[in-house]
Every structure is written in C-alpha cells, then in structure tokens.
C-alpha cells in the first residue's frame, strides 16, 4: 500500500501511517504536475497541505487512490468534484491549527497597528526613529469578524480580552450563540461600516470571493485596518491597493494572497503600511503536530474501512452513529443489490422508505449504501460510497427518501421501490433482534430470508407440484438447496419462492424453469 506525502507534514503524524501493515510511505515534496501524476498512479493515499495542487488531471492519473488527506483546514487546492467523481474520499484536519491561526491573526493585527515590522526594519537600517511609528490602541475599538467559525470565534474571544467591541457576521451565527460569546451579530454591510478593524475568517467560496471589494471598501470608515489570515481572494487585492493608496485603509496585514507565492513586484508590497507573512497562519510546532496526527488518523481510518469524522466530500459517521446504523448499511447495500437483479432496463427512480426508529436517524449514509448496491450491480467496482450519489445523478436516476417514524409492524424498516421500463419492484428489510438483517417483503409478498448468498427467486402460480418441479431442475443441475421460503397472498393465486442455493443458478437452468407452466418470473440473485 503506497502512501504518498507531497508537502511538509510532521513525522509525528506520518509515524501512524508507517505503522500500517504493508504500508510504504513515499515523501516527495515540490513535485511538478506531471511528476505528481506519475507518482500518484499507484498510490492508495495522498497527504498534502496547501502547497500541492491536486488538480483533476492528478486525480484522473491515480489508479488506486482511495483517500486524500489534507493536514489543515482549507481544501481549495484539491479538486473536490474530481475526487468525488473518482470515488476518492477527501478528509481534512480542521481543529488542529485553529489556535495557531487565531494567534497569528492577532500577531498580524497588532503588528500592523503598532508598525512592528517597519520599526524593526528601521532599527536594522541603523536608525532610532521614535516618531514615524506611532500606532493605535485596540481597547475601545470595534472589530468586525467576518466568518464566525472555529478561528473567527477564537479571534473574537481574544479581541474581547483586548477590550474591543466585537461585531460578528456569519450566516450561521445565531443570536443565542452571539450572546453567549459576547459578540454583536451584524449584517455584512453593518459590520464593515462600523468597524475600525476588519478580519476575515471564511473559506474561499463563490460567495466569499471578493467579499471585500471596491463597493465594500467604499462603505468602510476612513482609516480602517484590514486583516486576512484566511484565504487570498476573499479580499479583492486591486481594490485593497486603491483603498490603501487613497488612505481609506490605514493598514493591512495579510498572510494569504490571490497568488501564492505573491510575486515580488506585486503592488501590495509597495505600501509601507502593509504587513505580510508567507501563509504562516498554521505554522506553529503545535499546530503542525496536531494536524499531522489528526489527518494521519483519518487516513488510517479510511484505509481500514473504519468510520471517519472529517470527510469533506461525503457525510461522515461518528462512532456512535456507526454503532446504530452499521447493520442497516449492510442491509441497505444488499437490498439495493437484490432489487437491481429484479429489474430489467434502466431504472428511472428509486424511493427509499425509512420506517420506525430508523426514521429518527440521519440516514444519508444508508442511502449511499443502497445506491452503491443498486448501481454497483451494473457498474461494478467503479461505484463506492463517495461517488454513488454522483453516478446516480449522472445516470438520470431520481432518488427520493421518505421517513415513516410510526411504522406499526416493525421497529425498523428499510424499503426500496424502483420504477423501470419493465414496471415496478419493491423490497423491504428489517433487523430482527438476534437474527440480524432479514428480507421481509418482495413485490408485495411477505417473506423472511437473510439478505445474503445465492438465491433463486420465482413468482409462480400457487398450485401443487411447482416447488417439486423447480427442485428437480436444480437437482438435475447438481445445485444443492440450503433453505427455502415461500409466500403468497391467497390460496391458488400467485406465490413467491426464495431458494437459498449453494451456487448461482446458471442461465440454461433458469431458461428451463422459465418455460415451466405457471412460472411468471424467475431470477438468480447473487448477494
Ligand atoms: N492562514 C492560514 O495558515 C490558515 C490556517 C487555518 C485556516 N485558515 C483558513 O481560515 C478560514 C477559516 O477557517 P476555520 O477553521 O475557522 O473554518 P470554519 O469552517 O470553522 O469557519 C468558517 C466560517 O465561515 C462562515 N462562512 C462561510 N461562508 C460565509 C459567508 N459567505 N459569509 C460569512 N461567513 C461565512 C461559515 O459559516 C463558518 O462559520 C478558512 O479559509 C481556512 O482555510 C488559514
Ligand atoms: O487551511 C489551512 O489549514 C491553512 O491555510 C494552513 O495551510 P498550510 O497547511 O499550507 O500551512
């Protein structure tokens, strides 16, 4: 198993990966895209920070990649859509560098408020200039924190400790949470208009790109100070340069840039009141150890097939959720696989009903397992839990989840209904205490069978001799019957039969059974 590491990641984290049986760790930093495409070809896992650009071409070049681990928060250097299409899980380590980034934000804020780098440089030039570097105090000033997530919240707490009035803007910040933190909740417009300091802590998304643009600068107070230790691109650098040139912005402290490394002749670097660092927010010993340990543990979990917490391109299951839902993950996949074998032609839509107590859980992951079973029957190993919803969408399959918490008969119920060119099929299963997962209904007939192994499924006229004749055909073909289940709605009507057999019933035997008088439907199911 090859684990490729292409950025500087603490050896304390990598040790966990090295300890994986059969793992070979390959550390190669500073690769060009073609070099990375070559190196990733036979890798099972890739670990990066923000420097490696994991493009669509890189992901497409990978033949056996299962997981990309980001030792840090931001995943804008990874083509998530391409990873999802390819079925590669992307995990990150969102908690380990929060404090480092929050402290760096404050270091930058104070450095720019008190001209520390400029004063330091002046002394080194042989001067003792005490007039040019008169700064401003933080106490009593208003700071707008745009993005009140992990880092924004820590920055807000530190700002309060400095006696600042803190305005928070974040679509997910509730009034209650703001009150709890001592933050005044504001709209973006209000926050930027009232603030003496503005610091951004959002991810870079379509909505946040150039959140601070010309328009925004125009609404700000004269002499406002700007900090960006989140992502380059949240601030429009051209607009910032204009605002610095006009004096609207008194100072800016930037750790991140639209282009990294920032070109040496970038106009921002010509302003003496701009303080810059080369994306150092997460660069503390503690943070680097934290993120490396966290991401390596996540990657190990993915590679071992254990529940992971911080997937960026699929829902994660906590250990507790996994304990409750695990049997349903298996049941869902088996029911999906079973129903796929009942259907002829392309499936237009799928309805998944979650009944009883199951309806009270977040079942997004169970739906993925159903899709994996259903689509995997036709598409094979290409389908996994990451790309199953994408592949469903691509194939025009509409998926509907319904919940019925008040199921009268079963404590828990998982039912699938598919509609295809040849009509409709339905299958339902449950988890019987002590008996594990069971199929309890097929196409409206009650049955009771474990969803596993090789099964011969028939629908036939309910009359004497049918079961015996089918048994004879199987006996002639030397196929042993291990178990049998029959079901019917009324005597003499239609009946169903599920025979557990020791090997898959071959096509020629199926053809013989299909020709029997009274046989309406026959399928060899392989679970
Ligand atoms: N400079 C560095 O080295 C460094 C280190 C760590 C993190 N970061 C960056 O800092 C940023 C914040 O990280 P975090 O761990 O706090 O992330 P987080 O996910 O905990 O917080 C981000 C917050 O932004 C909010 N948000 C999203 N869109 C928004 C919008 N349009 N307007 C306002 N708020 C919006 C979210 O609701 C969330 O609360 C990320 O961009 C991350 O990549 C940089
Ligand atoms: O998003 C992050 O975690 C930070 O930007 C840190 O990036 P780095 O790991 O490249 O320092």
Folded structure, characterized:
This protein is an alpha/beta fold and 527 residues long. It has four domains: 2-95 and 286-304, 3-Layer(aba) Sandwich (Rossmann fold); 98-276, NAD(P)-binding Rossmann-like Domain (Rossmann fold, 3-Layer(aba) Sandwich); 317-452, D-3-phosphoglycerate dehydrogenase, domain 3 (60s Ribosomal Protein L30, Chain: A); 454-527, Alpha-Beta Plaits. 35% of the residues lie in helices and 25% in strands. It has helices at residues 11-18, 33-40, 56-61, 80-86, 98-113, 116-124, 150-161, 175-181, 188-194, 214-219, 237-246, 285-304, 319-342, 364-379, 388-394, 466-476, 507-515; strands at 2-5, 24-27, 45-48, 67-70, 89-92, 142-146, 165-169, 184-185, 197-200, 224-228, 249-254, 274-276, 347-356, 398-404, 412-420, 423-432, 436-442, 445-449, 454-461, 481-488, 494-501, 519-526. The strands form four sheets. A seven-stranded parallel beta sheet has the order 8-7-6-9-10-11-12, with helices on both faces. The chain has a six-stranded mixed beta sheet with strand order 14-13-15-16-17-18, covered by helices on one side. The longest helix is centred in the middle third of the chain and has 24 residues, at 319-342. It starts with a strand and ends with a strand.
């Amino acid at each position: 198993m090859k684990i490729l590491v292409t950025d500087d990641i603490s050896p304390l984290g990598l040790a966990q990966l090295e300890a994986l049986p059969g793992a070979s760790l390959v550390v190669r930093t500073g690769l060009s895209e073609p070099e990375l495409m070559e190196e990733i070809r036979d890798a099972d896992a890739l670990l990066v920070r923000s420097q490696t650009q994991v493009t669509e071409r890189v992901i497409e070049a990978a033949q056996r990649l299962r997981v990309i681990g980001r030792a840090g928060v931001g995943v804008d250097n990874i083509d998530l859509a391409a990873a999802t299409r390819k079925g590669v899980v992307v995990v990150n380590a969102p908690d380990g560098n929060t404090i480092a980034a929050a402290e760096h934000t404050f270091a930058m804020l104070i450095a720019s408020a008190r001209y520390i780098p400029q004063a330091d440089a002046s002394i080194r030039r042989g001067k003792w200039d005490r007039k040019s570097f008169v700064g401003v105090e933080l106490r009593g000033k208003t700071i707008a924190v745009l993005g009140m997530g992990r880092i924004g919240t820590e920055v807000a707490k530190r700002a309060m400790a400095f006696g600042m009035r803190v305005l928070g803007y974040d679509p997910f910040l509730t009034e209650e949470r703001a009150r709890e933190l001592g933050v005044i909740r504001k709209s973006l417009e209000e926050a930027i208009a009232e603030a003496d300091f503005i610091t951004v802590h959002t991810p870079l998304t379509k909505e946040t790109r150039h959140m601070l643009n010309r328009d925004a600068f125009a609404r700000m107070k004269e002499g406002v100070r700007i900090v960006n230790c989140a992502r380059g691109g949240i601030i429009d650098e051209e607009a910032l340069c204009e605002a610095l040139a006009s004096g609207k912005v008194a100072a800016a402290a930037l750790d991140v840039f639209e282009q990294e490394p920032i070109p040496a002749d970038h106009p921002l670097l010509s302003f003496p009141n701009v303080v810059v660092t080369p994306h150092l927010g997460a660069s503390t010993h503690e943070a680097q150890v934290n993120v490396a340990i966290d991401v390596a543990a996540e990657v190990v979990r993915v590679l071992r097939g254990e529940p992971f917490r911080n997937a960026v391109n699929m829902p994660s299951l906590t250990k507790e959720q996994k304990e409750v839902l695990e049997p349903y993950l298996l049941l869902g996949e088996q029911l999906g696989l079973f129903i796929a074998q009942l259907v002829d032609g392309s499936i237009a839509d799928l309805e998944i009903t979650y009944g009883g107590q199951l309806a009270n859980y977040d079942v997004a992951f169970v739906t993925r397992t159903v899709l994996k079973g259903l689509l995997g029957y036709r598409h094979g190993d290409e389908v996994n839990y990451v790309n199953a919803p994408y592949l469903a969408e691509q194939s025009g399959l509409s998926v509907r989840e319904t919940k019925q918490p008040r199921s009268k008969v079963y404590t828990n119920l998982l039912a699938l209904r598919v509609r295809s060119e040849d009509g409709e099929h339905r299958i339902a299963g449950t988890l019987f205490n002590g008996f594990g997962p069971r199929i309890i209904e097929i196409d409206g007939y009650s049955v009771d069978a474990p969803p596993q192994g090789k099964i011969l499924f028939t629908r036939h006229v309910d009359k004497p001799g049918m079961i015996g004749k089918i048994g004879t055909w199987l006996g002639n073909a030397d196929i042993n019957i291990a178990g049998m289940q029959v079901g019917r709605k009324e005597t003499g009507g239609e009946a169903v039969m599920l025979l557990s057999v020791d090997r898959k019933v071959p096509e020629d035997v199926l053809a013989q059974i299909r020709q029997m008088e009274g046989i309406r439907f026959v399928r060899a199911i392989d679970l």
